[in-house]
């Protein structure tokens, strides 16, 4: 019997549902799923929250903080959509946990395997929920001096970041100073 059929995935409704902040019921479900996949260390550290700062994203996973953030607008949909989004974000954390120190692509092979293990083998990269999309003006333009590729950004970059393609091509994936992004000054 698949893992997702073994678990009781009923979600709380009514006044017991957390409005914003940590959701202990979803955390318990996440812990149970991760423990069944031999990720006990990750299961102990996991936190699940409802985050009103998510606008167009259904959820977000932060491996460093072992945190899954869910968009409160998910509650406008059925419990299965909340469960699917939780599993999608847990798959990100599980894939990185299994990889150890090696960085994995967000929706790569490792993530797809974690999705299958969590019972959502047919998961797509993006959701199709009707969330409003907020377009923000990208005021800062950065360029890689090595390949010339442009990187428009909403916020100013505060640390040294290099072009990933150039780092992979010229320095075996490690930070490559010659590919460090530089701010392109706007023309007057």
Concise description?
With 188 residues, the protein is α+β, with helices and mostly antiparallel strands.
SSE layout:
Layout: H1 3-6, E1 21-22, H2 24-36, H3 40-45, E2 47-50, E3 59-62, E4 67-70, H4 79-99, H5 109-117, E5 140-143, E6 150-153, H6 164-171, E7 182-183
Parallel strand pairs: 2-4
Antiparallel strand pairs: 1-2, 3-4, 5-6, 5-7
How would you characterize the overall build of this protein?
- With 188 residues, the protein is an alpha+beta fold.
- It folds into 2 domains: 3-117, Zincin-like, CATH 3.30.2010; 140-183, no CATH class.
- It is built from 6 helices and 7 strands.
- It has helices at 3-6, 24-36, 40-45, 79-99, 109-117, 164-171; strands at residues 21-22, 47-50, 59-62, 67-70, 140-143, 150-153, 182-183.
- It has a 4-stranded mixed sheet, covered by helices on one side.
- Strand 3 and strand 4 form a beta hairpin.
- Helix 4 packs across helix 5.
- The longest helix has 21 residues, at 79-99.
- The chain is globular and about 50 Å long.
- Mean pLDDT is 88; it is low at 1-18.
């Amino acid at each position: 019997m698949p893992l997702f059929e073994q678990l009781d995935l009923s979600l709380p409704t009514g006044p017991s549902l957390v409005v914003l902040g940590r959701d202990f019921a979803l955390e318990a479900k996440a812990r149970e799923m991760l423990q069944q996949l031999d990720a006990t260390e990750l299961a102990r550290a996991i936190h699940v929250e409802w985050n009103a700062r998510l606008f167009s994203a259904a959820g977000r996973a932060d491996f460093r903080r072992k945190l899954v953030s869910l968009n409160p607008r998910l509650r406008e949909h059925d419990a299965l959509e909340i469960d699917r989004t939780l599993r999608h974000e847990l798959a990100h954390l599980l894939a990185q946990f299994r990889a150890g120190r090696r960085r994995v692509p967000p929706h790569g092979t490792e993530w797809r395997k974690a999705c299958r293990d969590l019972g959502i083998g047919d998961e797509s990269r993006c959701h199709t929920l009707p969330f409003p999309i907020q377009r923000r003006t990208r005021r800062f333009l950065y360029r890689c001096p090595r390949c010339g590729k442009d990187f428009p950004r909403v916020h100013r970059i505060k640390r040294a970041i290099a072009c990933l393609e150039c780092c992979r091509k010229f320095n075996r994936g490690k930070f490559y100073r010659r590919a460090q992004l530089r701010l392109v000054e706007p023309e007057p």
